[in-house]
Amino acid sequence: MLKSGDIFADVPERLADEETKILAANPGAVVERIVSTGQASPPGFWCDQPSPEWVIVLQGEAGLSIEGEPGPRSLKTGDWLELPAHRRHRVEWTSADPPTVWLAVHWRSGGAN
Amino acid sequence: MLKSGDIFADVPERLADEETKILAANPGAVVERIVSTGQASPPGFWCDQPSPEWVIVLQGEAGLSIEGEPGPRSLKTGDWLELPAHRRHRVEWTSADPPTVWLAVHWRSGGAN
Fold this sequence. Notes:
Two copies of one chain form a homodimer. By secondary structure, the first copy, chain A, is mainly β. Chain A contains no helices and nine strands. In chain A, strands 2-3-9-4-7 form a five-stranded antiparallel β-sheet, with no helix packed on it. Chain A has a three-stranded antiparallel β-sheet with strand order 6-5-8, with no helix packed on it. In chain A, a hairpin with a 6-residue loop joins strand 5 and strand 6. At the A-B interface, strand 1, strand 2, strand 4, strand 7 and strand 9 of A face strand 1, strand 2, strand 4, strand 7 and strand 9 of B.
């Protein structure tokens, strides 16, 4: 039985916290759907990840700050970027209506997970 | 300089062959954009890949046959599926107007490319 689905199905309209679902996981990388309904990173919090991430906005809009850049990037539907390992970043804002649907690929070093 | 872009930018309207662009490549997996404008797999050709692939249609529509299934799957925008290694498959048809935009994650065994 193949794993399959519609990324725009079952998107919650209101969430207390971001929702993350793993769509595919094989040694080396994981594919996730992330839904945000207005969430942002906590004030002063920067995300520092040990491995690279590739992320695209598939619905909605978001603001993303990346360490070393002069201001947040505005991401609209279709915009993607690659975050190298340990490049600190934070989500400044996400759209709630419609919810923001992200697709993320997280590499896993060592070929595990 | 971060790598970034808009996946719906610079989508060619007519192509002699499918167009594949690597958006991100790190040990373990590669992220690609594939654009089809009506292309299909050659008659009788089945694709047999040594490692898993996760694929989603982000624009347009396509028909995908998977060995062992009774008929082709119709994929519309947002539909995704995971193809295990060596699960044979073929593209039966793709929409030309609008062009079909696929996002594919190809795992690479051994953590190398």
